[in-house]
Amino acid sequence: MIVERNAPLQPHNSFGIVARAQQMVRIESEDDVHAVLADARWQGVPKFVLGGGSNIVLTGDVKALVLKVEIRGRRLVEETPRAWIVEAGAGEVWHDTVRWLLEQGWPGLENMALIPGTVGGAPVQNIGAYGVELQDRFESLDGIDLATGRPFTLDAAQCAFGYRDSVFKHVAAGPNDFGLAGRALITRVRLRLPRPWKPELGYLDLARRMAETGIAEPTPMQIFDWVCAIRSAKLPDWRVLGNAGSFFKNPTVTPEQCADIIARDPKIVHYPMPDGTVKLAAGWLIDACGWKGKSVGNAGVYEKQALVLVNRGGRAHPATGGEVMTLAKAIQTSVYERFGIRLEPEPVVV
Ligand code: EPU
């Protein structure tokens, strides 16, 4: 097992922030995880699981042992009249997997094209876009509990998926509490792609594409192309302009709170939810506070989508994690002062 010391993490986080891992090990198989856990050097040493690094803000060097997940492999495990079940290694690139599945004739993930990160990161925050979330296409996953060394398999209910949320984002506070944050290493994910395939075209941007192109019955590949075009127009490519996607979750409020805000700001973008709450567009709230294009040091608010914070300094003079967090806190304060709403960051702050 090769231990990389003082390993640069700039190539491994989509913000392009400069930080180092005191020690980093690449995990290519379940055996690699067991070898780390059995190694006397790392008994009791905190471990940090790193996937694609597309949802993290590094605020300093990482002292924990970094386990960089690079488990590969993709295969059809089951085909029934109701679904294709496909398994992918946690280290596979999410977008490449979406494209590969389409090429194999197993559609269903096209609405989630171009989401950065790895297959193993997808369930952690229940990634979603354009009307489809991971939980809608999820069968089960395998992982290893880093605290006990025990392998586990979880189904969707056990993953406790919510909006950008799962069991992997919660710390268990007591013996009867659930939560695997900081102790689970996801090794493989099985996706359930329903048959017959049905397009998901409810999202406004996709409905617009249908009207523009006159294509009433798009193929999965056409939807994939549309989603790629919509995302590219709105969201920066992290290879060109570092970012971690949406920096805040869209908040939910009660209908009364929403009515109160509408009375003051009639244009507020809001969506009634099935449970009676109302979801607000965090991007709109931030935009309304005048943040688009503003900066703190080399951390900035993207001009085309206020929900995305970007690294304006490139690879040579990148924003620091501190600048990103100072900017994020200033945004939270101004949105709270104007709307009384506390925005919750989406990425993990390390
Ligand atoms: N808006 C503004 N100003 C802005 C940004 C947005 O007025 O600066 C308005 C838009 O005009 C629109 C509304 O806010 O009416 C919502 O914007 P958009 O459709 O771009 O979606 P979003 O709510 O900002 C969410 C997800 C994205 C996902 C898209 C599409 C969250 C936190 N973000 O963004 O996910 O791609 O919907 O489904 O839920 C991610 O999580 O990293 C991510 C990119």
Topology record:
Blueprint: E1 3-8, E2 20-27, H1 30-38, E3 47-50, E4 56-57, E5 62-69, E6 74-79, E7 83-89, H2 94-104, E8 128-129, E9 132-133, E10 138-145, E11 151-155, H3 156-159, E12 184-194, H4 204-213, H5 220-234, E13 242-246, E14 252-253, H6 255-264, E15 270-272, E16 278-280, H7 282-288, E17 295-296, E18 299-301, E19 308-311, H8 321-339, E20 348-349
The chain binds uridine-diphosphate-2(N-acetylglucosaminyl) butyric acid.
Uridine-diphosphate-2(N-acetylglucosaminyl) butyric acid is lined by residues 129-130, 234-235, 245-246, 249-250, 269, 281, 283-284, 287, 292, 305-307, 346.
What would your notes on this structure say?
This protein has 350 residues and is α+β, with helices and mostly antiparallel strands. The protein folds into three domains: 68 residues, Uridine Diphospho-n-acetylenolpyruvylglucosamine Reductase, domain 2, CATH 3.30.43.10; 121 residues, Uridine Diphospho-n-acetylenolpyruvylglucosamine Reductase, domain 3 (2-Layer Sandwich), CATH 3.30.465.10; 107 residues, UDP-N-acetylenolpyruvoylglucosamine reductase, C-terminal domain (Uridine Diphospho-n-acetylenolpyruvylglucosamine Reductase, domain 1). 24% of the residues lie in helices and 27% in strands. The chain contains eight helices and 20 strands. Strands 6-7-12-10-11 form a five-stranded antiparallel β-sheet. It has a four-stranded mixed β-sheet with strand order 1-2-5-3. A hairpin with a 6-residue loop joins strand 18 and strand 19. The protein is globular, with a radius of gyration of 21 Å. Bound molecules: uridine-diphosphate-2(N-acetylglucosaminyl) butyric acid. Uridine-diphosphate-2(N-acetylglucosaminyl) butyric acid binds next to strand 13 and helix 7.
